[in-house]
Design a protein that fits this description.
By secondary structure, this protein is mainly alpha-helical. It is built from 8 helices and no strands.
Length: about 150
């Protein structure tokens, strides 16, 4: 079956609906902001409980990772991510979700070949390229004495 350019364009437009980018941006902004606000509230709480600011920030990171892992396990985080998109992806909670999701998905294959092998399928490239990029940037700083 040979299609003309107009026929192909018509089929293409039917198959790919327009995205609601304004709504998506608002959802991402508010959900990402809400996650950051929860982090700030936790930080304030830990400081009120007697932790110094540096330790409180560490506890906030640990708490957000734990909460996101639990919400991922109960499929709440994934449902939220369907609406909020990058709002759930960017903070530390998105990274925790990218580790926990494959682990849950492949747990039926066993601890080693399932969870252990597949846990970093999504987050692995982020770790590799983040580490390589930081090493390259560090070398640039050392070579050009930019620090």
């Amino acid at each position: 079956m040979k299609l003309t350019d107009k026929e192909y364009q018509s089929l293409y437009e039917k198959a790919s609906p327009n995205s609601k980018w304004g709504k998506n941006c608002l959802w991402a902004f508010f959900v990402g902001g809400a996650i950051c606000a929860v982090g700030q509230m936790l930080c304030n709480l830990y400081v009120m409980l007697g932790e110094d600011l540096s330790d409180a920030r560490t506890w906030v990171s640990l708490s957000l990772v734990l909460f996101s892992a639990l919400l991922t396990a109960f499929q709440v985080y994934d449902n939220l991510a369907k609406h909020a998109g990058a709002g759930t992806l960017v903070p530390i909670t998105g990274f925790a979700n990218s580790i926990v999701s494959p682990a849950i998905e492949f747990k039926s294959e066993g601890f080693i070949t399932g969870m252990g092998a597949k846990m970093f399928v999504i987050a692995g490239p982020v770790l590799v390229y983040g580490t390589v990029a930081s090493a390259v940037y560090g070398l640039i700083l050392v070579l050009f004495h930019l620090y």
